[in-house]
């Protein structure tokens, strides 16, 4: 199975694709460019086949059946639009992050049946309506359920995660064409930063106008909803909060996708084997912290939840040249790829492997794990990689 066929975008124009493939900067659109009809009428096909969810209706011919049929059709149409949006987000992500694309191809070369995403992650500014809710509305509209909140006091962050609709565990399909992933959205608590850092962030979000209403569209287009910043302002934020500096230049772009290792069929389903495989192929993993380190601390680590049932690791972020508004072109951190293995809950340990479903495994997220995963875009990790 070729990755190019699996991870292709059906609603991605050649002009946008060209820009995504050719930094030095993210596309920047004025707030006036975000027109409501565009956000709801994207419906391209370009010959790509879709895996849609199946919906059960009444088989008898009656007014109820007609109504059910109409509802089924609407649900399928909504499903197609939603996956088109995710597919465009994924395309931007893969075009800008060669490490993620190479690792997906590498895993696919060994385990070509299905590569499922455990979750998609985004970063936001908690100010002027640009926080978690700006992105969450898309997922809530398409059947996702809000779950627990996580707090990261040292990083001045909070996060919410969202579980996909129960009907989303379809068979077949990889990436965003497969089972819908969880969604993890974090938010910088801007009010807790220094006055100068707050001033910079508020300056750009204010200039964005109503850009926060089109966060999902901006992510799918690979665009900022605010103006490109000055390099001096980027440096100012980076010195205080690397998370804030990342968000200033990457906006709502996918921060990372996560391969669900236990859904693989080969020996790579074990995250230790996957990490070793990635390391042997020349990729370096985030070595920051982690409760359990299975390999040399300079190359990789596995973060394990206190209950021992959630295991996570990640690569170091790629970098890309960014054209700042003062004409300087400097390298900035982009995104990375994560791996997660969810073990079977104790109450289901007696089930046979063929009986085990995703609902039988450890769900949710862990603050300790996520705190270390955030470091994948840190200067310390990027410098070590260089």
UniProtKB/TrEMBL annotation:
Cofactor(s) needed for function? Fe(2+)
Question: Which UniProt keywords are present, listed alphabetically?
Answer: Dioxygenase, Iron, Oxidoreductase
Domain of life of the source: Eukaryota
A GO molecular-function annotation? dioxygenase activity
Q: Write the Enzyme Commission number(s) for this entry.
A: 1.13.11.93
Entry similarity comment: Belongs to the 2-oxoadipate dioxygenase/decarboxylase family.
PANTHER family reported in the protein's UniProt record: 2-OXOADIPATE DIOXYGENASE_DECARBOXYLASE, CHLOROPLASTIC, DUF1338 DOMAIN-CONTAINING PROTEIN
Q: What is this protein called?
A: 2-oxoadipate dioxygenase/decarboxylase
Organism, per UniProt? Gossypium schwendimanii
Classification from the root reads: Eukaryota, Viridiplantae, Streptophyta, Embryophyta, Tracheophyta
């Amino acid at each position: 199975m070729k990755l190019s066929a699996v991870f292709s975008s059906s609603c991605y124009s050649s002009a946008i694709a060209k820009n995504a493939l050719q930094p030095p900067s993210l596309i920047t659109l004025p707030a006036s460019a975000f027109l409501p009809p565009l956000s709801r009428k994207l419906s391209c096909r370009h010959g790509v086949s879709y895996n849609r969810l199946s919906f059960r209706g009444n088989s008898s011919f009656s007014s109820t059946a007609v109504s059910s049929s109409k509802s089924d059709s609407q649900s399928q149409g909504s499903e197609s639009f939603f996956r088109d949006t995710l597919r465009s987000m994924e395309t931007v992500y893969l075009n800008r992050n060669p490490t993620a694309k190479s690792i997906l191809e590498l895993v696919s070369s060994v385990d070509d049946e299905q590569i499922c995403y455990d979750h998609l992650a985004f970063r936001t500014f908690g100010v002027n309506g640009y926080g978690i809710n700006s992105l969450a509305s898309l997922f809530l509209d398409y059947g996702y359920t809000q779950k627990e909140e996580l707090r990261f006091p040292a990083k001045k962050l909070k996060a919410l995660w969202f579980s996909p609709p129960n009907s989303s565990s379809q068979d077949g399909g990889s990436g965003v064409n497969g089972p819908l992933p969880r969604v993890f959205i974090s938010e910088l608590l801007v009010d807790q930063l220094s006055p100068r850092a707050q001033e910079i962030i508020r300056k750009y979000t204010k200039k964005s106008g109503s850009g926060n209403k089109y966060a999902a569209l901006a992510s799918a287009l690979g665009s900022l909803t605010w103006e490109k910043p000055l390099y001096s302002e980027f440096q100012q934020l980076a010195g205080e909060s690397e998370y804030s500096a990342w968000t200033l230049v990457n906006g709502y772009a996918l921060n990372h996708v996560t391969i669900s290792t236990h859904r693989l069929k080969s020996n790579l389903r074990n995250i230790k084997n996957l990490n070793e495989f990635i390391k042997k192929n020349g990729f370096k993993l985030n070595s920051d912290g982690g409760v359990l380190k299975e390999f040399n601390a300079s190359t990789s680590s596995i973060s394990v939840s206190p209950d021992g049932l959630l295991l996570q690791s990640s690569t170091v972020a790629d970098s890309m040249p960014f054209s700042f508004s003062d004409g300087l072109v400097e390298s900035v951190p982009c995104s990375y790829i994560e791996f997660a293995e969810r073990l079977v809950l104790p109450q289901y340990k007696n089930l046979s492997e063929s009986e085990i479903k995703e609902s039988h495994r450890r769900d949710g997220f862990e603050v300790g794990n996520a705190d270390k995963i955030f470091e994948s875009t840190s200067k310390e990790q990027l410098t070590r990689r260089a």
